[in-house]
Amino acid sequence: MKQVVAALILRDNKILICQRTKDQPMALKWEFPGGKIEPGEKPVAALRRELEEELGISATIEKEVATVEHHYKKGGAVELHFYRVREYQGELENRIFEQIRWVHPGDLTRFDFLDADRDIIRRLANGELLHE
């Protein structure tokens, strides 16, 4: 099972979401920034690395707020670890995505997210996970 980390980056009561490019698998789906944990890498270190690569920021990673296991219909499985991020240094820049947006948690259900993110989207839209 592939191990993946993702950031719930918060600012002004909004959360950052990112859209995959048309050249990526599951093209143009929305997701949270993050990526695969490399062999021997700790989850927090992996997320810090991914956020630097994808967005050019140095993030303060808070506690893990959720873990989701997802099995894709065409095979393959992923275990996603979600971490809250409220502080970061550097100017946020879109380095790899089609687009990035700040949205209110209640509006997340309007976007076409990856299937693995759907439970988290529902929980965030219901006001869970962000204020614990």
Tell me what you see in this structure.
The protein is built from 2 helices and 7 strands. With about 130 residues, the chain is α+β, with helices and mostly antiparallel strands. The chain has a single domain (about 1-125), classed as Nucleoside Triphosphate Pyrophosphohydrolase (Alpha-Beta Complex), CATH 3.90.79. Strand 1 and strand 2 (about 15-20) form a beta hairpin. The termini are far apart. The model has no long low-confidence stretch (mean pLDDT about 95).
The CATH topology label is Nucleoside Triphosphate Pyrophosphohydrolase
N-C termini distance: 28 Å
Which residues sit in consecutive blocks of at least 5 with pLDDT less than 50?
none
Strand content: 35-45%
Helix/strand/pairing category: alpha+beta
Can you count the helices?
2
Order of helices and strands: EEEEHEEEH
* CATH-level-4 superfamily name: Nucleoside Triphosphate Pyrophosphohydrolase
The description of the largest β-sheet is:
7 strands, mixed
Short characterization:
The protein has 132 residues and is of the alpha+beta class. The chain has 2 helices and 7 strands, in the order E-E-E-E-H-E-E-E-H.
